[in-house]
Design goal:
heterodimer; A: alpha+beta; five-stranded antiparallel beta sheet; 3 helices; 12 strands; B: mainly alpha; 4 helices; 0% strand
């Protein structure tokens, strides 16, 4: 009997040791996983659907616009590979109908001064699987920040040359309030009128977006001072596409596997309820 | 006469102890099974992808998501193993490798939807089996 009691204690002690070991292993493995994914890879955002915001550079809290947006804080760096001296920005994204909406917001000191008269935020878009080869640019360019005079520009990028699109797609606006500036963009998804000069955005795919900022000159890419790359996954519109065969097999397998385990667990619980009777039977 | 009396006096606390330990083991069977069931329910929700803990595709959150899913399966495995071990002890039989193998399979299969969760669970479960084997040997 003493042996049995010490057996339970040993089991308890061993369980604690084992749990500690598992937790430590998990932390170790997760750390390795973080390292392999941490460097050089773009930040990833999965965008869902919501109400369309008005592109005016103002986040109207009364209408709840941008409330359903995917919100992320990212940093723009002078050199993306050396993440130092970053400017923290709010990056929001939402889909509605056949449009993708992106908001960029940040604070700078003396933001209304003439120093920022040539400020711009650009969103460069890379084709799917193009390994960050940005060929499309949507830019909101200020010419006088204190009077809130800006222009929305749609360019296509030919090597490093920025050429204005014949047909401008999408929209952009900005608004400065004290030191905080808000840039809003909208761009068509699966509906561009200019597939040659614009990146054709499609559902259920990821695209690399490069957020660029400059304030010295209204020239690109010379005026770009800081930037960062974000990978945005565009979801299918509500209602969703027809589930694929693979998805159907996966769902069926999930139901079969978990219901089998659940049934076995219930059977085991039933066996436990019969345990006392079984012990009595063994003793007699 | 006196000999019989002496024996019966000696066996009284031993019997009481035996009953107490049996009670403890029975409670352990039930509690471990209930908590195991709780972790199975969490595993169904997370590993069955009925609910998602994190929506952002941030590498840290992704790693945390994987770690939580793996931990839930491992804790389920350990709790059910403890419960089953005590169950078998109460019925006077040892836990054989067939049972351990079945539990290993039913734990691992919970992670079939995600290759990362699957591989980490496999490594962790193998570590548990190895640990139990080494403890058994010593």
């Amino acid at each position: 009997m003493n042996n049995s009691k010490s057996g339970y204690r040993t089991l308890k002690k061993n369980t604690i040791r084992l749990l500690t070991l598992i937790v430590l292993t998990q932390i170790f493995l997760s750390s390795i996983f973080l390292i392999t994914n941490g460097y050089g890879d773009p930040i990833e955002i999965k965008v869902g659907f919501g109400d369309d915001p008005v592109i005016d550079g103002i986040v109207d809290g009364t209408t709840g616009e941008w409330d359903q947006a995917k919100k992320q804080k990212i940093n723009l760096y002078p050199n993306i590979t050396v993440p130092e001296n970053g400017l923290e920005i709010d990056l929001w994204a939402i889909q509605e109908g056949l449009n993708l909406y992106i908001l960029v917001r940040f604070d700078l000191q003396d933001h209304g001064s003439s120093e920022y008269d040539n400020e711009f935020i650009g969103i460069l878009i890379a084709d799917e699987d193009s390994n960050s080869d940005f060929t499309d640019a949507k830019i909101v360019q200020y010419s006088n920040i204190s009077e809130n005079i800006f222009q929305y520009l749609d360019y296509n990028i030919n090597d490093t040359e920025y050429e204005e699109d014949i047909i401008s797609n999408g929209a952009g606006a900005a608004n400065l309030e004290e030191n905080q500036i808000t840039y809003e963009f909208s761009m068509p998804v699966k509906d561009t009128e200019d597939p040659l000069q614009d990146v054709y955005l499609n559902y259920i795919r990821s695209y690399d977006f490069k957020i660029v900022f400059g304030k010295k000159t209204a020239l690109y890419p010379d005026g770009i001072m800081i930037s960062n790359i974000v990978s945005i996954y565009l979801e299918f519109k509500p209602g969703g596409p027809e589930p694929s065969l693979g998805e159907l097999i996966m769902t069926t397998s999930t139901i079969i596997i978990f219901s089998t385990i659940g049934a076995l667990y219930i059977f085991y619980i039933y066996r436990i309820t019969q345990l006392k009777k079984k012990i009595r039977r063994i003793r007699s | 006469m006196s000999k019989i009396n002496k024996n019966s006096v000696k066996s009284q606390p031993t019997k009481k102890k035996e009953k107490l330990e049996e009670k403890f083991a029975y409670r352990s069977v039930i509690l471990s099974a209930i908590f195991g069931g709780l972790f199975l329910a969490i595993s169904i929700l997370l590993n069955g992808e009925i609910i998602s803990l994190f929506l952002a595709d941030n590498p840290f959150l992704l790693a945390l998501d994987v770690a939580i899913k793996v931990l839930v399966i491992i804790i389920f495995n350990i709790l059910i193993m403890v419960s089953f071990g005590n169950y078998k002890e109460l019925t006077g039989k040892p836990v054989d490798f067939k049972i351990i193998g079945l539990l290993f399979f039913f734990s691992l299969i919970q992670a079939f939807r995600n290759s990362l969760v699957f591989s980490f669970t496999l490594v962790s479960l193998l570590a548990i089996i190895l640990y139990l084997y080494l403890v058994q040997e010593s």
